[in-house]
């Protein structure tokens, strides 16, 4: 047992720095935790399936980290089961940087933001690619109905670990839809006063 995120992220060098900074004790409990936290619960599922974007990191074959932003309608990143995520990869700028990196090293890190509620979730996993020829049913589960772009592949991510971060330093920001919802009572009041 032990927390899966600590197992992956707290490398020897990281642990040495924690010792030097006096924070190792605080995190030692994670190493022994009876809760591995590598299976998505209701809390993570609801959060993931209401995101409209995330940031995805991969590592190039020359060792460079690379981050790409992925966006789509809320829920485009799907929880297929408690250990698996998926999304449809539509034809974009055809640079194939992330796909090239992940074909070489399938390890991926995602960070999902909820600015309005100052929450963020980090996920670590491994990617495999699927296509319509080999797994048409699974591709069908990933696509957004009515979205006309070409689906080049599906990203299937086996989750190995996740961690919720503290909300500090997340500046609250609101989407137009959230502002619209929050100001609806004001607009209704204005209409009544007219
Ligand atoms: C016409 C067009 C549409 C795009 N639509 C999306 C999109 O809906 N969601 C998204 O995350 N990226 C979108 N992108 C960005 C690309 O898909 C990008 O190629 C992809 O994120 C892979 O980038 P990478 O090569 O840096 O890994 C679009 C790009 C173009 C040119």
Automatic annotation (TrEMBL):
<feature type="domain" description="Pyridoxamine 5'-phosphate oxidase N-terminal">
    <location>
        <begin position="41"/>
        <end position="135"/>
    </location>
</feature>
<dbReference type="InterPro" id="IPR012349">
    <property type="entry name" value="Split_barrel_FMN-bd"/>
</dbReference>
<dbReference type="InterPro" id="IPR011576">
    <property type="entry name" value="Pyridox_Oxase_N"/>
</dbReference>
<dbReference type="Pfam" id="PF01243">
    <property type="entry name" value="PNPOx_N"/>
</dbReference>
<protein>
    <submittedName>
        <fullName>Pyridoxamine 5-phosphate oxidase</fullName>
    </submittedName>
</protein>
